[in-house]
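Schema walk-through. Below, the input block comes first and the output block second. Nothing else is stored per chain. Lengths vary across the set, and this one has 706 residues.
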Amino acid sequence: MKFTMRLGLLSVSIAAISCSWANARDGDQGTVLETITIQAESNEILVQDGYVAKSDRIGTKVDTPIVQIPQAVSVVTQNQIEDQKPRTLNESLSYTAGANPNTFGFDSRYDAFYLRGFPAYYNGMFRDGLKQFNGPSAWFRTEPYGLEGVTVLKGPASSLYGVSGPGGIVNLVTKRPKDEEYREVELLVGEHSRFQGGVDVSGPADEDGTLLYRFTALGRKSDTHIDGYPDDTGYIAPAFTWKPDEDTKFTLLSEFSRSVTGSTAFFYNPSLGIVSDIYSGDPTWNDFTTRQGRIGYEFEHRLNDIVTLRQNLRYHAVDADLRYSGFCTHPDELTYYGCSYPGRSWGHYIEKAKSFAIDNMAQFEFDMGPVSHTAVAGFNYIWTDYSARSASSYVSSSDIRVQPFYFAGSQSMNQYGLYVHDQMEWNNWTLFLSGRQDWVDSNSISPRLVETETTDSAFSGRVALSYKTEWGIIPYANYSTSFSPNVGFVYDGVTGERRVARPTTADQFEFGVKYEIPDTNAVISANYFDIKQTDGVVFEGNYDTDRNQIQRQLDLHSRGIELEANASFDNGFSLIASYTYMQMEIDKGLAGTVGKELSGTPNHIASLWGHYLVQDGPLAGLGLGAGIRYVGKSYGDDQNTFENDARALVDAAVSYDFGYRNPDLKGLTLQVNAKNLFDTRKASCSAANCYWDEGRTVFGSLRYRF
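--- output ---
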C-alpha cells in the first residue's frame, strides 16, 4: 500500500510537470521535437547498437565482428540493461540462450548461474577479459548499474582464457570513460521499502581530450519479502583514461563496495521434494556482509601497422562475513550435539579471498599470400588465495556472538599460461586456431589442518571454421577444450575422506549458423553443441561431520540446441528471443544416478522480450516493454525420483521520455518495471534441496541525463 502511494505520487508529480509544459506552449500541440538520445555505453571494448552487439574482444582477444566468430556468443547490451532494470547479474542473464539463472530460486547473495547445464559461477566469471576469482563463499558481487554490457562466450574457452568451465564464460564489461560529456542521476523506489540512488558522470578532464574520466556510484537501502533479509549496497567505481596520442591508451578501472544481504534464502524442507513456508533463517542473526574492491588497468600501444601491444592487470579482494542460522536436521547434529528439531543451530563464518591477474599479449596483423592473418601471442599469470574461519553454537544467537573461531580451510594457487591464436581469412572462409598451455600449483589446508600440495598442467585448444555465403548466412563448426583446477575440497565416496578436488576437463563439438540480416539491425543464430566433462564438481545436498556441504566429482554429458535473435529496428521496436533445448546426463556418479539427468537442469528454457518506443505522434516518448520467461520441467534430485514443475514468468516495463515533447525536459525519463508480474511462485529443487521463486516485485525510477 505504501509503495503504491509512492508510485502514485511520483506519477502525479511527473504528470504535473508535463501538463505545466503543455499549458505553457504556444498552442502548437502537433509539433514533435527531434530528440537526440544520450547513450551510456562507451563502445570501446564492446560495440553495440540497441539490443544488437556488433563487435567484441571476448571470443578472440582482438576486436572482431561477433557474427564472424565461429562460436556461439550472446551479449546483454546497455539498452537491454536500461529497459529491463536487472537487480542482479542473474536477472541480466534471464533472456540469454544457454543460460539458466533459475536453479536456486530467490537468492540475491550470489550470482549463481549455469551455462549449457554447467555451473559457471566459480570458473566462468571474467571481468574485462581477466578471470574474476571467487572463493567458496567470498564471491565478487556484481552491480548491474556499473556495467555497460555482458558478453557470454559459450562452450570451453580455455584455449584463450585458461582456467574456465565447460559451459563457457561470462565477461562483465565495466563502464568506461567517454570522450564526450555525459551526466546521469537516477532515483528508484520500490516494494519492500526499496530506495536507491545512482550517479554516473563522464567526459574529458582537460581541454585537448587526452584525459578522460568516469565516476559511477550507487547507494541502496532495501528490505525484501523475507523478514530480516536486507538488500543494501554502497558502490563507487572511478575510472580514468589517458590517450597521449592515437596509438597509445591507458585506462584505470576500479571499484569499491559494501553490501549486506540475508545470510540465507532457504526455507525448511520437511520431506523430499517439499518446501514449506517456514523460513530457516533467524532474523536476529541473519546478515551476510561483503566488502570488495578491485583496481587495475588496461594498456595498449600500437607500435606500427603490424604490431600492437596490450597489458591488462587487476588486483581484487573480497571479505565475506556470514552470520547464519538454520534448523537442526542433520543426523550428526542430533547425535553429537544434542540438538533436535525444532531446535536451531547458529553459525558465524568469515572468509577472505584475494586475486592478482596480469595478461600480456602482442597482436600481429599481416598477409601471407591471399590469406589475411590477425594473430595474438601472450602470457597470463593469476595468483589466488582464500582462507576461512568459522564458529558455531546450538544455544542461542547471543551465544554465537561470543564463540571463538576455528580454522575452516585455506587454499592458494598460482596459474601460468602461454597462448597463441590466429584467425585467418581467405575469400569467404575464416579459420580460427587457438592453443594454450597452463600450469597450476596449489597449496590447500583442510579444516583438520591436513596440508596438500598439487601441481596440474594441461593443453587446451580450439579449431573453428566458418564460411560466409553470398546471402550473408554464416555456417560454422568448432572443436574446443577446457581445463579448470578446482578451489576447495570434495568428498571422496571411496575413502570417506575430504580431499582436494581434481581438475575439471571437457571437450566440445559445436555446429551452428549466424545471419546478420542485410540493411537491418538484426542478428539471428542457431547452434547444436555436445560437451563431455570429466571430474565436474557438484553439491551433493548433504553435510559432513564438520558441517561443510558435501561436494562430489562426476562426469557429465551435455548436448542440445540454442536459438537466439536480437534486433533493434528504426521504428523504435527492439526484440530479444531465445530457446534452449538441452539434456544433461550423468556418465559417472553415485550409485543410482548414472544415466540419469542432472537435477535442476530443465530440458526446455525459452524467453521473449519486446520493447517499443513511440517516436512520433501524441504519444511520442512512451516506451512499452513486456517479456515472458519459460522454464521447463526438471528433476529435483540426481536419482530422478521427482520433478520440478514448469513455470512461466512475465515481466513488464513502461516508461516516458519527456524530451520527445519538451526541450526543457530533455533527458528526463520516468520508468516502472515489474518482475514476475502475475506473482507465479513455485519450488525449485536441485540435489534434493528446494527453494522458492521470488514473487512479484514492482519499482519505479526517475532518471535525468544531461
